[in-house]
Amino acid sequence: MSNNNTAVQDRQQQTAQKTVLFDVRRQDTADSQPYWESFEIEYRPNMNVISALMEIRRNPVNKEGKKTTPVNWDMSCLEEVCGACSMVINGRPRQSCTALVDQFVQPIKLEPMKTFPVVRDLIVDREFMFDSLKKIKAWVPIDGTYDLGEGPRMPERKRQWAYELSKCMTCGVCLEACPNVNDNTNFMGPALLSQVRLFNTHPTGAMNKDERLATLMTDGGIGECGNSQNCVVACPKGIPLTTSIAAMNRATNVQMFKNFFGSDHMVD
Amino acid sequence: MSRESDFYLRRLHSLLGIIPVGLFVAQHLVINHFATRGAEAFNNASSFMGNLPFVLFLEWFVIYIPLMFHAFYGVYIAFTAKNNVQRYGTFRNWMFLLQRVTGVFLVVFIAWHIYETRIQKALGAEVNFDMMAEILSNPFMLAFYMAGVIAATFHLANGVWSFLVSWGITQSPRSQAIVTYISMAIFLVLSVIGVQALLAFVL
């Protein structure tokens, strides 16, 4: 190494010789057979899985030196708030934008979250979750035929706490981690149960809380939870999913007794 | 198959696991413990339980019907899961797997146990200390019964934990952690009681 180099140039020369190995589970169409393809790309400091995938897209040549199709993946925000780039990296589901190459054992294995239908390569269709959000009415209804005026105030401390639940980005990682979300069940998954808690906490949202709980008490609802508690370990946003689930267990049980023993009021 | 009633069946499954099945298992192990006081003590206790008034009614409504529902619906639950302890080797995920493994094993064990005792009684045999001593004199059967008792105590103790979560009683991580310790204590105590009784028949 020449002595005329700056420290930065020295580091770049060193890292240019390093490479990163990727094993990618590929699938050309939704119905075709998956296969594995390996890639070896040049290492750059602070590289994440997405910048590596971009490098493969720029020069789609596999480890054997053969030209191939670029690997398809999904992404949007690149700061772990949208959930689009979720995939299984070295066996664990997470966002690829915050997956720094330095933190992984090589070869880095990339797979789609197979709990969902695979569209192509690493892209999956998370529509199941969005449909479930509709089922549980994951919104605060404020529309009326006349001005409904101001809603009830939300205590600030409650808002701060509810904000933690609102960090959910419907990324699907907790569904991928859950042993009970699979082809044998219609379980909507941990994230959705926590969303019911979020919208039932909101003072205006709480005006429809019995409707959301009723959905949790049907097929695919909270009954399917088996308490493996993988979801809370897997959640990239640190949402207290198992606490939400236990809270919704209590709420649905109370609702069940209310319904059966014939309370004459539905909400509160 | 419509699964609209799954929520209620799950809740029923959770409730029946504790009341009455869990309570019955605990009572059964305690009564068995009379064996450590000798054959006569065991036979007295066993004939007291076997000659309770309305015994057939009690057997069907406190044991057989709740147990069968818990067992068969439990097998369905066990086989709908796709276990992934390789991916998440956490304590709770292992408990989730073990709850299902012990549950399926217990269906086999309890079926065999009922065949060897209650059905033989219905066919004219007498259920007493000697009967159990003869069954357990076979080392394979002793191991099978040991496994059965330990599986049952584990399934019950861990079931207490998930019962409290499923009914929304323990919500906070701290309360769930404390109940984990309590459930492990229940497991140990009931296992010692059960295994001591089994050994009393062979030693």
From TrEMBL, chain A:
Q: Name one GO molecular function term.
A: succinate dehydrogenase (quinone) activity
Domain annotation 4Fe-4S ferredoxin-type: ranges: 159-190
Question: Which cofactor(s) does the record list?
Answer: [3Fe-4S] cluster; [4Fe-4S] cluster; [2Fe-2S] cluster
Give the residues annotated as coiled coil: none
Q: What is its EC number?
A: 1.3.5.1
Transmembrane annotation, as ranges: none
Q: Does the keyword Hydrolase apply?
A: no
* Entry keyword Nucleus: no
Quick one: a GO biological-process term for this protein?
Answer: respiratory electron transport chain
Q: Which UniProt keywords apply?
A: 2Fe-2S, 3Fe-4S, 4Fe-4S, Iron, Iron-sulfur, Metal-binding, Oxidoreductase, Tricarboxylic acid cycle
Q: Which SUPFAM superfamilies match?
A: 2Fe-2S ferredoxin-like, alpha-helical ferredoxin
EC top class, in one word? oxidoreductase
- NCBIfam families given in the database record: dhsB, PRK08640.1
Q: Which family does it belong to?
A: Belongs to the succinate dehydrogenase/fumarate reductase iron-sulfur protein family.
Protein name, per record? succinate dehydrogenase
* Originating organism: Sporosarcina limicola
Automatic annotation (TrEMBL), chain B:
Report the locations given in the UniProt record: Membrane
Full protein name: Succinate dehydrogenase / fumarate reductase cytochrome b subunit
Source organism per UniProt: Sporosarcina limicola
Q: Which UniProt keywords apply?
A: Heme, Iron, Membrane, Metal-binding, Transmembrane, Transmembrane helix
Residues annotated as binding heme are: H28, H70, H113, H155
A single GO molecular-function term is: metal ion binding
The record, for Gene3D superfamilies, names: Fumarate reductase/succinate dehydrogenase, transmembrane subunit
Q: Which GO terms describe its cellular component?
A: membrane
Task: Say if the entry is tagged with keyword Membrane.
Answer: yes
Membrane-spanning ranges:
12-34, 54-76, 97-115, 135-157, 178-202
